[in-house]
Write a structure and sequence with these properties.
The chain has 394 residues and is α+β, with helices and mostly antiparallel strands. The radius of gyration is 54 Å and the shape is rod-shaped. The N and C termini lie far apart (158 Å). This is SPFH domain-containing protein. InterPro entries: Band_7/SPFH_dom_sf, GYF_2, SPFH_YdjI. Pfam families: Band_7_1, GYF_2.
């Protein structure tokens, strides 16, 4: 088998790579004992770079195009080999084809939430995910720093390194963004652009760049999202009273039956109660309580019963046959007098003066809510001033 490989290698004089995969960054051209004929053709297609490595040292790099491998086209390798002009012989060298197209199938995401301080909600934990594209910008640097002598260097071998770098940069970007949480969606594109520039600068030493960086979503913990949903619902509902009436109207259109009518009534009552409970209540205002107005048939407030010998009455006692019915109702022009714990009366206005009326005596008549000192009753002011005051002691 080694003999056939050697013979096949002697007759092959075209060095090229047709990429049939979607994830290969670097591919090493296979040759028998790494021998390449002098004068062979090198074909480098678009989105490729061919790098010659001689004895572990990068010798030459070729951009897209077709080349005839001669000493004129291999200046560094010719210097290393010490060939004279026109010397034609096979030479040993490794040829690596490096793909320079965009690899746009890289995904990223925060394995652990990033803690940030939001100006409206305070400390919150954020998760984010998205995608980005990578491209080789310096093939020799990629071979030196990452690929090495790997015969087929794939994207999966560099994806973990890139993801760690992306997440580290993203945490710093979110922490220093200074944008409110609810406004992050509007700034995701600009944040992605700045992250792409920062990552490209970080990867320049390994020959890679990040042409595009996309933030697909920035999410909150589930409990915070539920709280935001409730807050949004309250903002959409607006006035709870109007919302309850709207719900009742919709239920009325679709209801048919006594049971549904009863449920409708309960729903309306519950909605009105909820609206009255959540609506802002005005500050209570202190107002004087109005005095209750008694009915004309009100009886005088109970007063300690007077002794028989101290209770004068100007009216004749009713006959025994009149006592069988209910007691007569007081008239508005009849006054009752309370003196020393005794209730006297009824009297007319003129009879109060002779019954012992003083400014401190308690009086009552039909229409008054309670017993009141005579000095506080306007109707008795003239009567009190016309009564001579008591004589001073001797």
């Amino acid at each position: 088998m080694a003999l056939f490989a050697k013979i096949r290698g002697e007759f092959i004089d075209i060095v090229e790579w047709l990429d049939d995969s979607r994830d290969t960054l670097v591919w090493r051209f296979p040759r028998y004992e790494n021998e390449i004929k002098m004068g062979a053709r090198l074909v480098v297609r678009e989105s490729q770079v061919a790098v010659f490595v001689n004895e572990g040292r990068i010798a030459d790099a070729f951009a897209p195009g077709t080349y005839t491998l001669e000493t004129a086209n291999l200046p560094i390798l010719s210097t290393l080999k010490g060939w004279k002009h026109g010397f034609h012989s096979p030479f040993k060298s490794e040829v690596y084809f490096v793909s320079t197209r965009q690899f746009a199938d890289f995904k990223w995401g925060t394995q652990n939430p990033v803690m940030v301080r939001d100006p409206e909600f305070g400390p919150v934990r954020l998760r984010a995910f998205g995608a980005y594209a990578a491209r080789v910008t310096d093939a020799p640097a990629l071979l030196r720093e990452l690929a090495g002598t790997d015969a087929q260097f794939r994207t999966e071998e560099v994806e973990g390194y890139l993801r760690q770098l992306v997440v580290g940069r993203l945490a710093h970007a979110l922490g220093t963004a200074g944008v409110a949480l609810l406004d992050l969606a509007a700034g995701q594109h600009e944040m992605g652009r700045r992250l792409a520039e920062a990552l490209t600068a970080d990867l320049a030493g390994v020959g890679l760049s990040i042409p595009t960086f996309t933030i697909e979503n920035i999410s909150l913990p589930e409990e915070v999202e539920r709280a935001l949903d409730k807050r949004s619902q309250m903002g959409i509902v607006g006035d709870l009273g109007d919302y309850a009436r709207f719900q009742a109207a919709n239920a009325l259109e679709s209801s048919d039956g006594a049971g549904e009518g009863m449920g409708l009534g309960m729903g309306i009552a519950a909605g009105q109660h909820l609206a009255s409970t959540l609506a802002p209540q005005p500050a209570p205002q202190t107002q004087p309580a109005p005095h209750p107005q008694p009915s004309p048939q009100a009886q005088p407030t109970p007063y300690p019963p007077p002794s028989p010998q101290a209770q004068p009455t100007p009216h004749p006692q009713p006959a025994p046959q009149d006592q069988a019915g209910p007691p007569p109702l007081p008239r508005p022009d009849e006054w009752y007098l309370g003196v020393d714990g005794e209730r006297r009366g009824p009297f007319d206005a003129a009879g109060l003066a002779t019954a012992g009326l003083t400014p401190d005596a308690l009086v009552w008549r039909a229409g008054m809510p309670q017993w009141t000192p005579a000095r506080d009753v306007p109707e008795l002011a003239a009567l009190l001033h016309s009564t001579p005051p008591p004589l001073p002691p001797a």
